[in-house]
Design a protein that fits this description.
The protein is mostly helical. The protein has 13 helices and 3 strands. α5 packs parallel to α10 and α11 packs antiparallel against α12.
Length: 314
């Protein structure tokens, strides 16, 4: 076997294409992407700092919010800086090991994001439907267990992905038609026909996403039923406002993730640029929106930040 064949079977690097057909706009596309990343970075770090500093915020909602913020930071940082290098410096090459590492972080932390959305929906359900027992049901130990289960689920189900891809031979093109390393985009470059591996990946993603989405929907249906039974119209509107903003973030996450899943499974006629742009949205938009929806709109966090700024400014 010659040197060329060896390099094909064991590639040292892949080549990220970016967004097919929009290469001439990469520099401009990078500007809003970078802006969203900066907001996500500052917003999530602020939430973590505020909750850590203010002991009165050590409640279930804010503890789950911290877990979500850490997930958002890892998810966005594992994709955005590398994506901006591609857009602004034409750095298309990515080493094989870096590609596998990025893939693991993207898929496992996306699953964690979904799990923490479910945990926060459960917290809202208990807080609104059974407020007197909220503190006794969601104790710190139970919150820790829920967080650990979400993390272990994400790591456990998606650890096989890089292991499987590491063992495959690659004799086709090294070009990944995407802005980041995604399992389905990389596995298509393998020499072997591994339908079972593809079905495992899609099955895990569908199973986790659909189960979480189903239980989130049930939680919010029960919440809405409880809200409409409140005697005070003002209390009902306040509860609806809080739930409404949460639902918006959740809908953006699951609709874009669902579109990406269905495109891999059925949407062979969807334009690659459309698929890739929407695939970027479910990695970029939730980390950008979560600090705004869960942080800025939460009175306790907003008041703490404003009071801190006033003290420093005086």
């Amino acid at each position: 076997m010659g040197p060329a064949n060896k390099s094909q079977l064991s590639p040292s690097t892949f080549w990220l294409m970016g967004i097919p057909g929009l290469e001439h706009l990469h520099v401009w596309i990078g500007i809003p992407f970078c802006s969203m990343y900066m907001v996500a970075l500052m917003g999530n770090v602020t939430i973590l700092a505020v909750v850590r500093a203010e002991r009165t915020l050590h409640e279930p909602m804010f503890l789950f919010l911290c877990m979500l913020s850490v997930t958002d930071l890892v998810l966005s940082t594992s994709t955005l800086p590398r994506m901006l290098c591609l857009f602004w410096m034409a750095a298309h090459d990515i080493t094989f090991d870096a590609c596998l590492a990025q893939m693991f972080f993207i898929h496992s932390f996306t699953a964690m994001e979904s799990g923490f959305f479910l945990a926060m929906a459960i917290d809202r359900y208990v807080a609104i439907c059974d407020p007197l027992r909220h503190a006794t049901i969601l104790t710190h130990s139970r919150i820790a267990v829920m967080g650990a289960v979400v993390v272990l689920r994400g790591v456990g189900f998606f650890s096989p992905h890089p292991v499987l891809l590491k063992q495959l031979p690659y004799c086709r093109t090294r070009i990944i038609a995407h802005t980041y390393c995604e399992f389905m985009a990389v596995v298509k470059l393998a020499c072997l026909e591994i339908g079972a591996t593809k079905r495992y990946s899609l099955g895990v993603a569908f199973g986790i996403g659909s189960c979480d989405c189903f239980f989130i929907a049930i939680s919010y249906v029960l919440i809405l039923r409880a809200v409409f039974r409140l005697p005070s119209r003002e209390a009902s509107l306040k509860a609806l406002g809080t739930c409404g903003s949460h639902v918006c973030v959740i809908v953006v996450f699951y609709s874009t993730a669902g579109f990406t899943f269905l495109t891999h499974r059925f949407g062979h006629n969807v334009a690659p640029r459309t698929h890739i742009l929407i695939a970027n949205m479910y990695l970029l938009v939730p980390p950008f929106l979560n600090p705004i929806v869960y942080g800025v709109r939460t009175k306790k966090i907003r008041d703490y930040v404003l009071n801190t700024l006033k003290v420093k400014g005086s």
